[in-house]
Amino acid sequence: MAFKGTLVIDTEKCKGCAVCIEGCPQKVIALSKNVNGKGYNYLEMINEDACIGCANCAILCPDGVIEVYRVKV
Amino acid sequence: MKREDIIKPENLVYRRTPVLTDNVMHYCPGCGHGLIHRLIAEVIEEMEIQDNTLAVAPVGCSVLAYNYFDVDCVEAAHGRAPALATAMKRLRPDQFVFTYQGDGDLAAIGTAETIHACNRGENIVMIFVNNGIYGMTGGQMAPTTLEGMKTSTSPYGRETDLMGNPLRITELLAQLPGTYYVTRQAVYTPALVRKCKKAIRTAFENQKLNKGTSFIEVVSNCNSGWKLTPVKSNEWLEENMLPKYPLGDIKVPEK
Fold it and tell me: Per the count of CB atoms within 10 A, which of A72, B51, B133, B179 is most buried?
């Protein structure tokens, strides 16, 4: 059984601390080259297909900007 | 499978808890405070005690904690959160009372209040965030600053002959008969975050059973004060803070 997941990132509230990137086992997320309204390089998904919806990134996020969805495939 | 097919309410696994308000936290990027706030809020949500929880906010970086917890909050004078929590719990024993303090608040100016509240065994939960520095005022030396650690008031590193030794207040409090559950946690990996949440849950369950003081130290980072990036500060924490402040339960109730 495999899982497929995806993230909804509140880019305006993201502070670009990159703590979540360390926790991702699938290397799905990275900081964007663009900045948000506060001038932070926000988080984005670079490898969406690999996401398994483990929610490690959301658990590590100090600002709670990540929502995680997961389905069985 | 398309992204739109996955994003449906029934597939939701993790979302920001509604016990936190929608305000953007003022903490620096990567600060452990936001995470610890969220863990407490999640425990409150899981136990369904949002309407009968009282929080006591400290002075320090987390002075504005009352803006983020969607529960009734009181702001204490510097270091006096345990004294205020004592009064609140005694007047309203039906409510859950927790204090949230940093190391400058709990282990420096508020040492007397902390020790006496724990010694009396007040039936409260105390959350102690230890980052070894005074974060809000600009990275000055705190009682918990490590030996040799550079801060703005110890620019050549903390010398123990002159400035004293790092204070391990959690071990100190574990000696007191009033404390029921004393533990030290950290929040820099997903596994540790889950463990920390479990400890907070245990503490609130203890309060429900009127067991006495539950004290949780969370070793956290201060990337601005330590002059490191968030990721580097977590590595620094693991290498330097944890040998002095080892993780784990220090006092657990006998079964």
Answer: B133
Output DSSP code: residue B167: P
A44 touches chain B (CB under 8 A): no
Name the residue facing A69 among B13, B31, B188 (closest C-beta).
B13
The domain that contains A22 carries what CATH number? 3.30.70.20
Q: What is the pLDDT of residue B255?
A: 66
Q: Is the ipTM of this complex over 0.85?
A: yes
Please, what are the domains in chain B? 3-21+31-251 (3.40.50.970)
Cα of B162 to nearest chain A Cα, Å: 36
Nearest Cα of chain A lies from the Cα of B4 at a distance, in angstroms, of: 9
Nearest CA in chain A to B191: A56
Residues of chain B with pLDDT under 50: none
Parent domain of A31: 3-72
pLDDT in tens, B73-128: 999 999 999 999 999 999 999 999 999 999 999 999 999 999 999 999 999 999 99
Q: Does A50 touch chain B (CB under 8 A)?
A: no
- Strand stretches in B103-245, DSSP E: 125-130, 179-186, 213-219
B151 secondary structure, DSSP code: B
Judge whether A62 is closer than 8 Å to chain B, CB to CB.
yes
Q: Count of domains in chain A?
A: 1
Phi/psi for A60 (5° steps) reads -85, -15
